[in-house]
Amino acid sequence: MKLQGKVAVITGASMGIGEAIAKLFLEEGAKLVLCARDLARMQAAVPRIGGGDDNTLCVSCDVSKRDQVDAMMQAAMKKFGRVDILVNNAGFGLNDSIEKMKVAEFKQMFDTNLFGAVECMQAAIPLMRQQGGGDIVNVSSVSGHISSPYMGGYAATKHAMNAIGMAARVELLRHNINVVTVCPGYISTDFSKNMIKGSQPQRVGGAVRYSVGPDVVARDTLKAVLKRKRQALTPWFYWIFVKLYQNAPGLIERQLSKSLKPTSQVIAEGAKKSN
Ligand code: NAP
Predict the structure, then answer these.
(1) Maximum distance among all alpha carbons in the chain?
(2) Model pLDDT for residues 21-62, shown as the tens digit of each residue
(3) Which atom of ligand 1 is nearest to 88's Cα?
């Protein structure tokens, strides 16, 4: 058991990638503090991941509210006495053009995806420093490297998250705290269903063919934590797209533009692939 004796706080753990990370961390012996805004949905995930009262604590927490983040960390300390790992996974998307997207919704997404993650880091870092170290996982995205059309606002939150993670890593390594930025590609979860959609939402259709399950992200996240990596692109082959985009952006831009389809069609294709 690779995480025996460790306590992990995982945000957005009631479904999708957060739930998969929670399941794997539990299997590896960690004790878990799990949060989402909807407490009933969070609690419903506990039997699915094989948890119980002794090794999991569910908390209702909106990461964009600092008082709720502080209360979550206090609850973690009260139940388990330490916080070794923080997984900043809570997040959502906004599927609209730059021209039409509502700035209020764009700001709301920044409040969760970026500022929420920073608030969680600020609440956890003093605890980790007192304990002599820890690990922070920021679940970003391939969108933190490549901005897809109609997902520009979302990509902005993830580019910013990458920047925060890279700087924090250098600041915190001297305190034995590693910050790893995990960048998943297209993962089969309810992310696309749950995201805010604009008036004529479109998405890059071709990406569905490369989709994998959230368990792949969980395994790569665990590996990255154990090896104290700087970054993990998951699944690994997304490195090819990122390198291509860095070296021949026009090629990728043409492909992105050609592959645009109505979002409803892309969601249906994704559902078909995961069945
Ligand atoms: P998901 O299935 O929609 O799950 C999102 C989770 O976040 C839910 O548990 C949700 O629960 C929680 N959440 C949302 N807003 C929150 C808030 N303000 N405070 C606390 N919890 C909140 O999405 P997912 O696919 O698992 O995505 C997880 C992370 O991976 C996100 O950061 C996403 O950007 C990233 N990602 C996903 C993909 C993909 O293709 N799926 C690819 C790259 C990156 P409540 O609604 O109850 O709060």
Answers:
(1) 53
(2) 999 999 999 999 999 999 999 999 999 999 999 999 999 999
(3) 32
